[in-house]
């Protein structure tokens, strides 16, 4: 039986678990490395991996809007947040990304599928390098005194963010495919 207690005073999580395998997950970064491997492989548990998803999308669909977004905008947004996490992991200076700002939703004009595939491959490598050297003793520290979440939330959140948005990418791709088929 395992549980994680969060104290009201300092928001530091404490793992209480009889299973040594679970405690091992909570004290090293292999789990997070495996999350990013999962995002990039074919047929992960949540649907389609990043490259698998992009391979099926025709180049001309990348910049076609569905509602107020394009697939290219979603991909650029994912890359922006991956780059932010990479800077955190490598302890590099970074600007705070304001929600709905140009940094949050970078201009994707002119970006090709090859550009995005390369960016995802590069950020995967940099995320894994950052995770390999990450000081796990900081995993349960607050991200910042102004926020009530800890570093492990950021590490998990990066993968969750990718899963969420690759789902949106696949939904937009399906809508565009249906629109294309309806024209024929």
TrEMBL record:
<feature type="domain" description="DinB-like">
    <location>
        <begin position="52"/>
        <end position="168"/>
    </location>
</feature>
<dbReference type="Pfam" id="PF12867">
    <property type="entry name" value="DinB_2"/>
</dbReference>
<dbReference type="InterPro" id="IPR034660">
    <property type="entry name" value="DinB/YfiT-like"/>
</dbReference>
<dbReference type="InterPro" id="IPR024775">
    <property type="entry name" value="DinB-like"/>
</dbReference>
<protein>
    <submittedName>
        <fullName>DinB superfamily protein</fullName>
    </submittedName>
</protein>
